[in-house]
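Sample 3 of the quickstart, ligand nicotinamide-adenine-dinucleotide:
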Amino acid sequence: MSAEIRFDGRVALVTGAGGGIGRAHALTLASRGAKVVVNDYAVSIKNEAEDDDRAQAVVDEIVALGGEAIANRGSVADAAGADEMVQQAIDEWGRIDIIVNNAGINAADAIQDEPGPAYQSHMAVHLEGQLMTVRAAWPHMAAQGYGRIVNTSSAGALGFVQPDGTWYGSYAIAKGAVIAATRQMAGAGAAHGIKANAILPLAVTRMVAPVIPGTTTLDYMERYTGPDHIALGACILASDECPATGQAFSISGGRVAVLVYASPLGFADPTITPEKVRDNWSAVMGQQDADHRLLDYYEAVDNAFEYRLLQKAGIGSEATL
Ligand SMILES: NC(=O)c1ccc[n+]([C@@H]2O[C@H](COP(=O)([O-])OP(=O)(O)OC[C@H]3O[C@@H](n4cnc5c(N)ncnc54)[C@H](O)[C@@H]3O)[C@@H](O)[C@H]2O)c1
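Result:
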């Protein structure tokens, strides 16, 4: 067996680490040698203040196991709060190497009512919160030529309906935007030794039961998908050995798998008409088997690759890009 993945000498910030998946990230990193800022603002899944010090409770757990950690009780949704949690790592240990952006809320909302009451808080916590911790840490990571960022998206970004038929709004929108933000961070970070990836976790936590109560899905999750599976599956992304950047990974129950945007060559004709599109719809859609396994798709690697696919499809193939 190869050497253990370790974090000795590394300093990590894990947001929303007072429970659920964030706690598992913090314990996993600390058990492998990282010094950890355990952040948690202590709110309910609907973003109401709760009267506990869950960040300190996780710090106590880590210390009792022989690790090093300090608590931060600020909000990632507040620029000053995000700055402070990064500064706390710098003041205490002189560096910041790893950010696991995990803090989250889930105030159910319907897409047709957006932007509704929960819109601002979802954007602030899930999207802006992940941007603001990274913004605060970026100068330190760039100066040291090293950084690892693990952002938390959600399979909710793929299409998310509640058992009562409500299609989610801002939660899913914000989580989708996290994937785009992660790609941009990876691009910008490449010159500085900063790698950024996103995860789409599924794990039974206090956030899950109220969303899918009484379902066979919840029963399945309770049996097979724990927070530790997420932390252990994502651990490599926070490590020196991180083999990817700009990617998103589905992680749950012991499964880790990259998620890609993909498209077939499609239908392409410089003399396009609406009728030609209709008559060539099967080419537009490409081929999948009954399990949705893709048969003739290309990964849409980035914006520039779109032009290469256009050329492959026969549009201006001779032109220099
Ligand atoms: N559990 C799942 O199956 C699942 C699925 C997809 C995505 N996620 C995402 O994973 C992350 C962790 O979720 P969880 O299931 O462990 O939920 P959780 O409710 O157990 O943990 C979230 C923690 O974030 C904290 N928090 C909320 N707002 C904060 C803020 N502004 N600043 C700092 N901390 C804040 C909360 O106090 C809470 O302790 C979230 O981003 C969630 O959206 C979870």
